Prior knowledge:
Bound molecules: nickel (II) ion
Number of helices: 4
Largest sheet: 5 strands, antiparallel
Strand order of the largest sheet: 1-2-3-6-7
Distance between the termini: 42 Å
Structural class: alpha+beta
Number of domains: 1
Helix content: 25-40%
Radius of gyration: 16 Å
Shape: globular
CATH class: Alpha Beta
CATH architecture: Alpha-Beta Complex
Low-confidence stretches: none
Amino acid sequence: xxxxxLKVVMRGDPLLQKKSVDVQDPLAPDIQTLIRDMEATxxxxxxxxxxxxxxxxxxxxAVFRVMTGNPLYPLTPDDxxxxxxxxxxxxxxxxxxxxxxxxxxxxxxxIPGMMGQVARYHAIQYTFLNRExxxxxxxxxxxxxxxxxxxxxxxxxxxxxDRMEEGCELRPKEEVLAxxxxxx
Length: 184
Ligand code: NI
C-alpha cells in the first residue's frame, strides 16, 4: 500500500512552533498510514528527511536518511561513509556524548531555497522506537548527528533559524552549493 503526498507546512505557520506529543502506539493503523504518507511525500519532494509537524501532525515522529555523494550534505570524516538507510524515528531521546559542537549548513523543507549555519553536538547517542515499535539505540557523529538533532528540534517546535547564533549565515541554497564546490 502506498501513501499519499501530503502538503508541507511552511515557516511562519504556528503548527511548526508547537511541541509535539509522544506516539502512544507506533503500530496503530493511523500511525502506520502517517508513516507511509510521509514516505510518499519525501519521495515526491526528493528530500531526505521530514518530521510529522511539517505535514501538520503534532506527533513525535520523523523519517530521514543520511545520503552519500550529495555535495550539499557533506559527511564528516566521523560519519559512516555508507550513510544511514531510511529510518523511521519515533519518540526520540538524544544524549550528547560530549560538549563539542560544530557549525554546519542545514536545509529544511519548510524553508525552501535557503540554508543556514547551525552549531550542533558533534557526537550523540539517540534512542527511539522504529516503525515496528521496537526500541533502537544508535551512536551518531557528524552529519548523522546533525540530522537527528534537526528533526528532533521540529518535534519541539524549533526551526534551524531559531538555533542560529551570532556570526552564522543564512544563504540561498545555490550559493552554498557553489561555495562547497569551490572548496572541494
Ligand atoms: Ni527541517
